[in-house]
Structures are given as structure tokens and as C-alpha cells.
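Q: How would the C-alpha cells look for this protein?
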Amino acid sequence: MRKLYFFITFVFVAFFINAQSISPELVSNAGDEFSNATITISWSLGEVMTETYTAGDMNLSQGFNQGIMDFVPIKELPNLDYTINNYPNPTQAIITVDIIGLDDNQTLNAKIYSINGVFIEEIELNQTKNIDFVNYAYGIYLIYTTLII
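A: Here is the predicted structure in C-alpha cell form.
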């Protein structure tokens, strides 16, 4: 009798409990859906697309939502084969920033930040430049450089 009671309880629990729902869902960083009486338009961003089939003015998309594909050309950057040396490190007075391999017509924009992310100073670098750290508090500083095009 005890085995029969256990079996009936097991079947009852297994029949009425749903562990999970298998329905199509989309986790996206942006998207929305709009509809009226004749058409529904839904869109999303950040997903991979697979393929679109077109017949007349109707589209069937496989995968996630697809809109109009735009191809953006990539701008070729000039020669970025250069080296930046900072010395002496650590310093209590002046640090020398030496740039090797930068073309004569190229300039680097250097921003100096404290380790806490506080902006300190912005300078332009061409070849070699001395930066005076005498007036700065003792600590760790970061030099963030970008090429001025």
C-alpha cells in the first residue's frame, strides 16, 4: 500500500508541475514592437542575423530581427608603428617622454590623469618632451595618448 501511495503521489506531482517554459525569448539591449490592425513591426539591437527571404514586398527573416543593412567604410589610419618611452620611472621632478618612429607631420595628444582618474594636464607631443612633475603630489599617474589626425 505504501508503494502505491508513493507512486500515485509521484505521478500527480510530475503531471501538474512545470519546471520551465520553452517559448522563444529574446534578451536584448534595446528593442520595441509596434502594431496596428494590418501589420506588426518589431525590432531589436545587438543580435546576430542569419538570412532574409524576399517575395515581392514581403520579407521573412530567419534568426533575430533584421532591418536594413548599412555598410560603413573603415578609414585607413596612418602608420601607427611608433614607441613611447617614459623615463626615469619613478621620478620626483621631470619625466622625459621620448617618441620613436613618429612621422614629422604626426602629433600625439597626451592627457595626464591621477590613479583616481582625475584629469591633471593635456599636452601635445611630437618627438621628445620633458614633463615637470614637481608640482604634483606623490603618487601614480597615467599618460593616455591619442594620435591627432
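The radius of gyration is 31 Å.

Residues 30-72 form one domain.

Upvote if useful.
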